Structures are given as structure tokens and as C-alpha cells.
Amino acid sequence: MLMKIRKEIDKNLDISLLTNDVEADEAWFGRKDNQDIVVGLVQRKKRKLILESIPNVKENTLYPIIERNVVKGSNFYTDSRITYCIAGLFYNHKVTNHSKGEFARRHFKERIHSNTIEQIWGDIKGIIRTTHHGISKKYRRYYLSQYIF
Predict the structure, then answer these.
(1) DSSP of 61-81, one letter per residue?
(2) Rounded to an integer, what distance in angstroms lies between the CA atom of residue 50 and that of residue 15?
(3) CB 127 within 8 A of CB 6
(4) How far apart are CA 93 and CA 87, in angstroms?
(5) Residue 39: which H helix or E strand, with range?
(6) What's the alpha-carbon Rg for the chain, to the nearest Å?
(7) pTM to 2 decimals?
(8) By three-state DSSP, how is residue 53 classified?
(9) What is the Cα 32 distance to its own chain's centre?
């Protein structure tokens, strides 16, 4: 019954565009033989969320997802993954460099970070680890849709 509910949620998610302050990041779910890469986009304050499984983290995979889901001209916050650099063409792209220990900074009144999406990854992985003890790749999309809802 729960899986039927998850599938209905997946069919009826709000797919309107994200705007204003948007964060992006990607996460790996599952073990090596059952692994998915998921890109996440979240609109700050509203915490409106889009999660999409992707085959890789290359620019030609990530950018069409960003372009399809984020209003051009929005503030766009990511970590320093090089494949997000193209976002600077149509978005006000700001970066934090996690490899240098930078996770947030202020620039005048602007808060530059991707901590909202990082916290969401922690929530989702915590739920999977403690409640479900892992999710088959076949059904992962529906569990992610449930979290978005």
C-alpha cells in the first residue's frame, strides 16, 4: 500500500520552476552494485525541492536539468565542482570550495553556501539508513518523491 501511495505522489509532484536563491548538489545513493547519482536543486526559504537520478556528473548532464528547472537570472549556489561553471552564463553563480574547508561565507548581506541541500541529503540518507536499511534502485525514485512531498 505504501508503494502505491509513493507512486501516486511521484505522478503528482509540483514541477514549477525554482527561482530567487537556488542551491544545487549531487549525492550518491546505494552500494556499488546498486548505486544511483542524484542531483538535487532546492529553493531556499520555501525549501521547494527537485531530485533527479542522473547517469553521471558531467556538464552536459547537469546543465540541462538546471536550465529546465531554474529561472534564468536566479542566484545559484553550488560547491566548486567544475561542471557547474557553465551556470555562470545565465545565473548569478556563487561557489564555496569544500576542499579548502570553505562551507559558507558572507558577501555583504548575501549568504553564500549550499548547506540547505547538504542538510537534505543528510535527512534522506538518515531515513533510508534507519527506517529502510537500504532501497532497491528500482524503487529509489518513489522514495525520493515521497521525501519531496
Answers:
(1) HHHHHHHHHB-TT-EEEEES-
(2) 8
(3) no
(4) 6
(5) strand 36-43
(6) 16
(7) 0.86
(8) strand
(9) 20
Cell of 96: 564555496
The single-letter DSSP state of residue 30 is S
The span from the CA of 24 to the CA of 49, in Å, is: 10
Beta bridge partners of 92: 75
In the block, cell 518523491 appears at 145
Cell numbers linked to 16: 514549477
Integer Cα distance of 75 and 4 in angstroms = 37
Q: Are β-strands 75-79 and 92-96 bridged in parallel, bridged antiparallel, or unpaired?
A: parallel
One-letter amino acid at 146 equals Q
Would you give per-residue pLDDT tens digits along the chain (149 residues)?
878 888 888 877 777 899 999 999 999 988 877 888 999 999 998 889 999 999 999 999 999 999 999 999 999 999 989 899 888 899 999 988 877 777 878 777 788 889 999 999 999 988 888 887 778 888 888 888 888 88
Cross-sheet strand order for the sheet of 48-54: 48-54, 36-43, 21-29, 75-79, 92-96
The C-alpha cell at 49 is 525541492
